[in-house]
Amino acid sequence: MFHVLAANLPMAAFAPDKGNISNGDNAWILASAALVLLMTPGLALFYAGMVRRKNALGMLMQNWVVLGIVGVLWVWLTYSLAFGNDLNGLVGGVHFAGLANIDKEIVPGYVGAGAQTIDPIVFVVFQMMFAVITPALITGMTADRLKFGAYCVFIVLWSIFVYAVVAHWVFSPNGWLYKLGALDFAGGTVVHINAAMGGLGILLALRKTKRNRAGWPKMTMKPHNLPFTVLGAGLLWFGWFGFNAGSALGANNLSAHAFVNTNTATAAAILAWIAVEKLRNGKSTTLGGASGAVAGLVAITPSCGFVNLLGATIIGILAGAICALACSVKFRLGLDDALDVLAVHFVGGVIGALAIGFLGTTAFNSFGADGLLYGGGGKLLYHQAIAVVCVALYSLVVSYILAKLVDKVMGLRLNDEDEQLGLDLSQHDESAYDFESVLGSVHQTLTGKTSGTTPASTEEVKS
What global pTM score does this model have? Predict the structure, then answer.
């Protein structure tokens, strides 16, 4: 996103100038931050609907707790690591830890054409929401398997040693991938590829015999509540306008272009995904429609501020079709990516990042670059490929190491008994649906008897 505003100029060349602050831009970015925050509960519903009933609350809680963990960690440490004074292009320092000095100098990555139009604290809030949803995405790959406490510890470590570092590389003008010329408008590499590789690192760190859910792939593990999933997808789509359009860091023409591109790519991806389903299986599914929307949103994220309407449409079609086909790869690999994070977020993120190398244009964003199809040559595509490979490898390797460490110290994986019982009861002593009370009431109505026990199943009620 910082290629939108940031020129690679020394910090000393600028000083905060409150006269350039736009209340309108402040208001839009704060509203965008609120939209992005809503994406995390939306993701929780999206994922919770796709797991089995006994794990619904567990998925909701894993996503919800990230708001707490990262909400504290970001302001006290990880914002500074991502955007603080540079340490050799690899990570920021602790200059902004605890939000110290936040109003005394311009935030790195936030200097554009000698102007500062939003307050630094507004930028901190906006970026916080990106830092929240990224680790939450990991839960779709590891669904139904992780101990809650161990998961929380992993998220703390991952936010510090993976997310903050990658965000610095790509988003901060001092980061080495930024200086190289790699473009990422709103987080295709930093958010989606990064999170997918984080989840893969966890799975690979588990013993091969405990990597997959019990019974997978022979056992059918169908979504238990598709209305939840569609509602979650709708909230994600709504919040994504803040994610992408807000990354213009102002209420301006570029923001409007990013908004239109986001919606167009998402709509095209839905149609492409359900068309692939129809051709392959004879029917288009509700789950496919929801997944297609998310695939389109993922793919347009890095490119929405760098491509035109035609480019957005092409990216959406490619994402919907290719991500739909990629969902079957996990079975060939024998890897239980429960909710298709690799197929949607990794593949979608790669499509969106590399597409800039072909479809990028400076027509409405002079801080972008022209891709192959607009006379820019292959340099931009080369830089995009380097960013994709380096982010993926770094996230995979460090996530693997962190997961191994947590697994060795406290154990990441549920034991067999707890997995059979489900996350809801084994980890939280709660149940998403109180069927026992409902069945007990039905039993009393049918028999006219009151009892201290409730029937064990609907079959007992029928009898």
Answer: 0.90
What lies within 8 Å, CB to CB, of 447 at 6+ separation is none
- 62-103: per-residue pLDDT in tens? 999 999 999 999 999 999 999 988 777 799 999 899 999 888
Show the 3-state SS of the chain.
CCCCCCCCCCHHHCCCCHHHCCHHHHHHHHHHHHHHHHHHHHHHHHHHHHCCHHHHHHHHHHHHHHHHHHHHHHHHHHHHHHHCCEECCCEECCCCHHHCCCCCCCCCCCCECCECCCCHHHHHHHHHHHHHHHHHHHHHCCCCCECHHHHHHHHHHHHHHHHHHHHHHHHCCCCHHHHHCCCCCCCHHHHHHHHHHHHHHHHHHCCHHHCCCCCCCCCCCCCCCHHHHHHHHHHHHHHHHHHHHHHHCCCCHHHHHHHHHHHHHHHHHHHHHHHHHHHHHCCCCHHHHHHHHHHHHHHHCCCCCCCCHHHHHHHHHHHHHHHHHHCCHHHHHCCCCCCCHHHHHHHHHHHHHHHHHHHCCCCCCCCCCCCHHHCCCCHHHHHHHHHHHHHHHHHHHHHHHHHHHHHHHHCCECCHHHHHHCHHHHHHCCCCCCHHHHHHHHHHHHHCCCCCCCCCCHHHHHC
Q: How large is the average pLDDT for residues 41-64?
A: 97
Q: What are the extents of the domains in the chain?
A: 11-419
Residue 112, pLDDT above cutoff 50: no
- What are the angstrom distances between the C-alpha of 73 and each of 4, 32, 365? 27, 21, 33
Q: Which residue has the higher pLDDT, 10 or 451?
A: 451
Rounded CA separation 340/46 (Å) = 12
- Alpha-carbon separation of residue 267 from 47, 228, 263, 274, 312 (angstroms): 21, 20, 6, 11, 10
CATH number of 11-419: 1.10.3430.10
